[in-house]
Amino acid sequence: MFSAGHAQTYPNNAVKIIIPTAPGGPLDVLGRMITPQLHEVWGQAVIIENKPGGALMIGANAVAKSAPDGYTLLLCNDGPISINPNLYKKMQYDPKKELVPVTMVVDAPLILVVNPGVHAKTVAEFIALAKANPNKINFASGGNTSRLAAELFRLTTGILIVNVPYQGSGQAIVGVVRGDAQMMLDGLTSSLPHVYSGKLRALGVGTPSRIKELPDIPAVAETVPGFTGTTWLGLFAPAGTPADIVHKIQSDIAKVVYEPEMRGKLAKLGMYPIASQPAEFAKFINGDTEKWGRVIREAKIPLVD
């Protein structure tokens, strides 16, 4: 059991949420959606501070080195938590020792899209095309998450496709629209407008089964059993933050994201509320870290100095 002492008075000051990406991306959008509601729940200002750079590690390190009092939080994806420890030889912080998981705020499925010029209208047809043309099909990546999701798809299906890296998912998806790359596993938020306009073709979503809001798009797992391609957006606090404060933040996040109007807004962005308990989130992160480590090793991706 944890003491309720700290939580009874928390927060009695402004809370800062650091987002390790530039304004405009999914993390920033989510942060700015939930902060007005958190302000109402807490009765205190909730301030967003963007600290981009260093593969999301600059912002993560800033929170890791902050006072463990619940007034500086990190909203991030899997990059600085479960991917980078497997990819970088040196990091300024240890996510397992210096950050405590608070809650997975939302799950954000990826979607497999191709340029309309690609002669494949299903996942099965795309796999057959790639197997018939080894190393002839390029996939776009706009960061480690999309890169590793595509590598996982490649390893699972046994196809040989070539990575074309871009500076961010926005540029990457434009590369697929132009035809410079033929395929990408990208977030729903940035891909669906191009799918609806006919500039991209959707072959499958990365969830285990079809998404209720997109019933006509199959799950990739219908063709590739066991495949999942999703990312998550979660909240972290500096290690040593009192457990009762961590639990209060989680509980209040759950109130905000499960409010019906908020759920609807999130669904339109391809985000689905989770608001997991801290221990549940920590267990998930351990498995996520192991999974991406395995993909990086099997894909023979060189470590970064």
How are the SSEs placed, and which strands pair?
Blueprint lengths: L4 H5 L5 E5 L6 H17 L3 E5 L6 H8 L7 E5 L2 H9 L7 H4 E16 L8 H10 L5 E4 L2 H14 L4 E4 L3 H10 L4 E5 H9 L4 E5 L24 E9 L4 H15 L2 H9 L3 E2 L4 H21 L7
Parallel strand pairs: 1-2, 1-3, 5-6
Antiparallel strand pairs: 3-9, 4-7, 4-8, 4-9, 4-10
Helix pairs in contact: 2-10, 4-12, 7-12
Domains, number:
2
The number of helices is: 12
| Helix proportion range | 40-55%
* CATH fold annotation of the largest domain: D-Maltodextrin-Binding Protein, domain 2
Beta-sheet strand percentage? Answer: 15-25%
Any low-confidence stretches, pLDDT <50, length ≥5?
A: none
Shape: globular
Q: How many strand units?
A: 10
Average pLDDT reading: 95
* Secondary-structure content class: alpha/beta
Task: Explain this structure.
The protein is α/β, with parallel strands linked by helices and 305 residues long. The chain folds into 2 domains: 5-107 and 231-298, D-Maltodextrin-Binding Protein, domain 2; 109-222, 3-Layer(aba) Sandwich (D-Maltodextrin-Binding Protein, domain 2). The protein is built from 12 helices and 10 strands. The chain has helices spanning 5-9, 26-42, 57-64, 79-87, 95-98, 123-132, 144-157, 169-178, 188-196, 243-257, 260-268, 278-298, and strands at 15-19, 46-50, 72-76, 99-114, 138-141, 162-165, 183-187, 201-205, 230-238, 272-273. The strands form 2 sheets. Strands 1, 2, 3, 4, 7, 8, 9 and 10 form an 8-stranded mixed beta sheet that branches. A two-stranded parallel sheet has the order 5-6. Helix 2 (26-42) links the parallel strand 1 (15-19) and strand 2 (46-50). Helix 2 (26-42) crosses helix 10 (243-257), helix 4 runs parallel beside helix 12 and helix 7 packs across helix 12 (278-298). The longest helix is centred in the C-terminal third of the chain and has 21 residues, at 278-298. It is globular and about 65 Å long. The chain starts with a helix and ends in a 7-residue tail after the last helix.
